[in-house]
Sequence to fold (286 residues):
Amino acid sequence: MAHRICTWEADGELAYFQRLWRALLAPDIEPRTRLERLFEAETEEFDMNCAFLSSIDLDRETERFELAYGPHGILEPGTTVPLSETYCRKTITDPEGTMAVTDAAAEGWEDDPAYDTFELGSYLGTTVSVGDELYGTLCFAGTDAREEPVSDEEKALVELHSQWVEYTLAHWDEQPFRETRLDTVEERAVSSEAIDSMMDALKNRTRRAILTTLLDTTETSIAALERRFTPEEDRIALYHVHLPKLADAGYVRWDTRTDTITEGPKFAEAEPLVRLLKEYNRGFSE
Fold:
């Protein structure tokens, strides 16, 4: 079903936009809450069940979900994923800056890393810029395919929503769509919960060594890690304690088929702290 405001027989357009912009421009409601309300209303209208605002770091080739809505395990605020595994990597290179997928499986996405990672059946995303620089994307997505093709009018509507986000980002002194309470590691904003998770992971010497290894390589093998931990009890703990803990926290991906370790979706959050620890306590990385 297409968004009702974009069908030729639609009526009540003025009332729709009155409700929409009353929510987006409410002076007594913070921008984060306004965007949450937009996501809640528009996911139903677009016949999709997820939505998110992301920031993209082209230098690090990562995408971070600043605000997310819907029943999806990976699409959670604060989660960072490799840009190469996302639908948005193609959105930001699209000449129009907007991309739509009505039925991912039917449109040839099944072999794409984005489909493998997120398993989204439908997607409608557009770029968000501040000034002349890319900030990220504003997207609606569905865990199932849509029955009707995404129309050009629906693309135009999501671009209008993006313009409101751009205006808010440009005129708000703080980070309007991140968590209210922030701590910093090397001047990079992270939540207090993320700090707690980092400290829990990094308090152990073996886990610090694993994460430090990933600073210099994109992939390492279990065999290579085992060579660093000669006592038998250390190797047992590697399999049954340290790697599962780091994988559960999102700092590493453990491929049990190939016995290899790569950066996890939240590795970028912990990386600045890992680098600091490597600099000030080089002993654990030897």
Summary: The mean pLDDT is 83. The chain is about 40% helix and 20% strand. The first strand starts at residue 50 and ends at 57.
